[in-house]
Amino acid sequence: MSLPPDYHMHTHLCHHAVGNPTDLAAHAVKIGLTEIGFSEHNPMPRDDWDDWHMDQADLDTYVANVEQARRDHPDLTIKLALEMDFIPGQEEWIRGLMDRHPWDYIIGAVHYVSDSWDLDNPKRLSEWKSRDPFQVWSAYFDRLTMAAESGLFQIIAHADLCKKFCFYPKEDCTPLFAKFLNAARKHDVAMELNTAGLRKDCQEIYPSRQIVQMAWEAGVPITFGSDAHAPGEVGMNFAEAIALARGVGYTQCCRFTQKKREIVRF
């Protein structure tokens, strides 16, 4: 049985990763993947928004680099995508970027719980220490639900990224999870199993087993992603992600071509 596609990977153009697409593709071939997708961080309305999004001038270069990887690795299926930050009020900016190139899928992500705080940024860790975790998690899942409802995305990324630094609420967050998953199911959006969490403080796949179980029960389809920021991270910990998915009942995942979804076994 084949490995599922790795649909979440970054390149040097986001300023905090290393490797060109062809470098990451070479590692995918080495470990036996047959399909991957690049999903670089989208350019923001201002290049000085932060230091981890792709610059506006690099968008066409990114696409050209992915096309070069396709030429270099003709036996590997390579999809072209973006990881788009969902920030309320910026929907038209997102739509404009979506019109620029023939994307195979768009991953919707929430990193910012306000216009100025990216809650997963190690440089902004001190912000957590002055806030109530439940309020942060509530704001995060509210935005994640809005992203699922927006109709802009085929996949939602790392659905409990707010656990990265282990600031866990004392309150029961199950209603937050359920609201998001109901929105994903209603709007036919997939949820990724993102193995990068195993490399972070939380040491757990995004999202948690509880959320994956609830997603299965709600009928939300899934994808897999390493969130690779270096060639050696491509496909990393996929065995654990597959075991998690199978453990709650999943035997199928999604692949996308020009935003058209196909269900395949893994």
What this model shows, in words?
With 266 residues, this protein is of the alpha/beta class. It has a single domain, classed as Metal-dependent hydrolases (TIM Barrel). Helix content is 32%, strand content 17%. The protein has helices at 21-31, 59-72, 91-98, 133-149, 174-186, 209-218, 238-248, and strands at 35-41, 77-85, 105-109, 155-156, 190-194, 222-225, 252-257, 260-265. The strands form two sheets. Strands 1-2-3-4-5-6 form a six-stranded parallel β-sheet. A two-stranded antiparallel sheet has the order 7-8. α4 (133-149) packs parallel to α5 and α5 (174-186) runs parallel beside α6 (209-218). The chain is globular. It starts with 20 loop residues before the first helix and ends with a strand.
Q: Could you write a compact summary of the structure shown?
A:
Helix content is 32%, strand content 17%. It has helices at 21-31, 59-72, 91-98, 133-149, 174-186, 209-218, 238-248, and strands at residues 35-41, 77-85, 105-109, 155-156, 190-194, 222-225, 252-257, 260-265.
